Amino acid sequence: MTKNCALPHHHKLVKLRRGMSKRVELQSEGAALDASLTELERERAAREISGWETGFAHLSRALDGIRPGLYLLIGAPGIGKTSFARQLLDQTAIHNRVPGIFFSFTETQNELRVKTFARLSGLDQREIRRGGAYLLHWYGVPRLAADETADLAPSWEKLKRAAEEARSWLDLIYLMECPGETTVKEIEAQIMALRARAGSEQILAVIDDCQRLGPTDQPLNARLPRITEELQQLAVRLGVTVFAVWPNLESGSMRAQAWGEKIADPDVVLVMESDAERSKKLTEPDQAITLHLVQNRRGEKGRLAYDFFPSCARFEETL
């Protein structure tokens, strides 16, 4: 049991921890006022949000941008969670020039790359997969032979242009295929390695299917609190942003808001649901999606509307 400790007599300052080389200096807010005002003056340029731009205008405003901490995205299988997370990672790199890393337990690097190529070019993912041998060599596949250019359809020229235009920000993105036994410690080691490689303290780490970080012999409900606590500690310890994706396999119709009551660790909890009524106005397999902000320590709560186009792995915000 932890004992209550009284302050030392005579108001002396003491070291907080044995072995610390320097004392922690106390400073009143009044004494720090001038320095605080000077710092604010440096940042006086008007900004709509204080964090990173997501590339989704409504989401950026609701979140006040992306900042260090744990963001948890929850949704049913097949609803587009992975496509949304990959698009968010790409757009954050584009708008903020920050490095990002995508940890995947189920999809390969090439499958994730196809999502990006499809979204950028507007081509169907199936068409890209059928012509996978023609993808640009610098993005992990063989170069197209000079005598094979006549075999390319015009759509492939569109893909090549889109990919070439993305080259600069793709240099900021890293994809990791994770074996089933991957641990949070190994995730942390990879983030630290990326920090050293990129020379940047600011990192956006996306963990798809993060439920696989917990013991597989436990039910999902038992894993959820433990995994979110570990990922929150990781985000705080490293001062990075962790965007984790969790499957909603709950039987029955669990309210989106109930997820915010179920887990307290994340800074932001987003719940993705299909909107059946709005989906009727779209052409199958396109879906209307509602994104519920059920927990948000730094901004608003509410709902955002999206249209999801699975063929090209693209989400678009709607009014």
Counting DSSP E segments of at least 2 residues, the number of strands comes to 9
State the order of secondary-structure elements, H for helix, E for strand: HHEHEHHHHEHEHEHEHEEE
Class from helix and strand fractions: alpha/beta
Q: Name the CATH homologous superfamily of the domain at 57-121 and 170-317.
A: P-loop containing nucleotide triphosphate hydrolases
Major pleated sheet: 9 strands, mixed
Give the spatial strand order of the biggest sheet.
Answer: 3-2-4-5-1-6-7-8-9
CATH topology of the domain at 57-121 and 170-317: Rossmann fold
The residue fraction in helices comes out at 25-40%
What is the overall number of helices? 11
Estimate the global geometry from the Cα principal axes: globular
The proportion of strand residues reads 15-25%
Radius of gyration: 23 Å
CATH architecture of the domain at 57-121 and 170-317: 3-Layer(aba) Sandwich
Measured distance between first and last alpha carbons: 55 Å
- CATH class value of the domain at 57-121 and 170-317: Alpha Beta
- What low-confidence regions span 5 or more consecutive residues with pLDDT below 50? 1-21, 134-152
- Kindly report the average pLDDT value: 84
